[in-house]
Amino acid sequence: MTLTTPPATAAARPGTAARLSAATYRTSRPEPGIVHLGLGNFHRAHQAVYTAAALAEEDGPWGIAAAANRSRAVASAMTEQDLLYSVVEISPEGAAVSVPGVHTEVLVAADEPGTLVDRIAAASTRIVTLTVTEHGYTYSPATLGLDVGAPAVRHDLAAPDAPRTPIGQIVAGLRRRAATHGTPLTVVSCDNLSDNGAHTRRLVREFAALLPGGDDLTGWIDTNVAFPSTMVDRIVPATAPEHLAVAAERLGLDDRAAVPAEPFTMWVLEDRFAAGRPRWEAGGAIFSADVAGYELLKLRLLNGTHSLIAYLGLLSGRRTIPDSVALPFVESAARAVLAGDYLPTLTVPAEIVLDEYVERLFQRFRNSALAHRAAQVGSDGSLKLPQRVTRPALEHLDAGRMPHHLALTVAAYLRCLAPLPGDDLPEGVRDVRDPARERLGELGARASTSRELVEAALLGEGLFGSELGHRTPFLDRTAALLDVLRRHGPETAAAEAAG
Known about the structure:
With 499 residues, the chain is α/β, with parallel strands linked by helices.
């Protein structure tokens, strides 16, 4: 392992590097069998950790060849470190460091598109996993279908052997597999998408059908490729200098690719694999026929609540989730949206003790040692929020109830992303990334009232689906709460939603 020993730590802990042994990470690389798209922090603190536990329990060809999309930073750091890095589990009680050691190769898809297609097409590859965020699936939130108008999708359809999008990369690999050895494969989405297995399958089939010989290829996919749905849950923030310092202090080594994470982790999967799988249950993975139940529990109670905390916190000048939820009105609003608006729209899986689950959520939100950035949680809301807000809102409206805190969530999101002329926002709001940010900014600049903006975003743009955009009572309530946010601030708006 070629992690370098930092001078100060080495002096304090002579011989620490020598103790980094098989007890901490694998001394030999496993045989490759998994290709992963998305070399970000979440993959390296989640699927890679479960795979390390599986390989510790039972050997097998489950080494991971992982591809970053465009960024070279992590791939370069891991390459210099013999493909090793550490996971730093951080809580108020302290920190623990481990080294998964399961990667067999890292590459950058933008630099080596042909190599990535080769890896997916290889007969030795049995599973392709993805953590590319909602944005990476290049789909239309309005239709849930492939966004054939996106420039990257148009490029991939014109040059299918040099794809830029994850869906294009998967289809290119499947196309070559079908034309050569025909070995079955499993594609596993590990992103926060509703019914992510069926969602990924739909996009792959739509893309494949647009290529020459598309009917034959989609027929082969239907017979030979499995798309199990999954639910993933772990808070994994962006790496900051303080996380690198903790890793160096614990290891006695400099690790430029260290990943921070909370201690909690959960992975629920359908046990539907076309060519075998690792024993991920050795790391605590749950194989269940009720993935949808776990998924809704997480998407709504955790992710939906998380979004409201992030936007109210940012509008209050807070930069982190712990600092945001420490505001009494933010915690009250979070508990209200969870219990009043989200919980009535789902069935809790039998294995979950609800009170314990909810209190554990708020313990996780309060993890000040991890300091999860509110802007990171609030990013990509145009893709995330429709999955979290739209169906629950429609269920309440159909039952004659107004989901006040879901309307507050939408209003707070629009307040952050689409300021009206003359609006003044806290500085941290600028750090929220969103593929719709420019479009929403233009809507805000053209609007003269909160009602105009809400109507333009929900009805004109169909941001939360065409059906919700036509529900006038919800538009009215969202506009009223946005007006309170603009005139009186988030605390008053939260009180108005509660009242």
